[in-house]
């Protein structure tokens, strides 16, 4: 089996490798007051989601921009509660400023960010409230269960991808994740941090990688539950502190 690749979009190295750009390279020194100009999100393809499901997807999904020291990257995330966003650790790595775009067109700065050492997950706190969300499933999705990935592939429009859980296997990226889920819901760069919704509409996983066929790999919701219960998130180190 080919090793899965991170599903984030990085405006320097990654875009050069993929030969297709979504986020333009920033000219000169990065401005300190940068605010991205993006349209208000809307679901481009509701797929199997009901009207209520589309509404919930719009409300919970967020677009994340990592403004680093000379770099800009994008990813996805979702609201855990009205002031907390879940995404991937690699989406916010080496950030100087993290900006969150909501379904109703608001641009919100994260006031704090923390990451888990034993999984590719990050937790962001916001000063402004987020919309109510469906919440986390109590247990992992079963093999064969239908799933829907909700996120912002390539930093563009909010979209969904349908598939099913193909199975669970040991993480091949060396992220100390243990068992991870694999689905045939196709994702793209920028989908990292997307919520994976189960058949009941609750979050059953967090996308963190994809394979060469664009199938998605997810951190199971059981791992997220464990890390939240253990308070296993440590403050993120800014790129300015590391000299990045």
From TrEMBL:
The keyword Cell membrane does not apply. InterPro entries: Peptidase_S1_PA, Peptidase_S1_PA_chymotrypsin, Peptidase_S1C. Transmembrane segments: none annotated. Residues 1-21 form the signal peptide. Keywords: Signal. The keyword Signal applies. PANTHER family: SERINE PROTEASE FAMILY S1C HTRA-RELATED, SERINE PROTEASE HTRA2, MITOCHONDRIAL. This is Trypsin-like peptidase domain-containing protein.
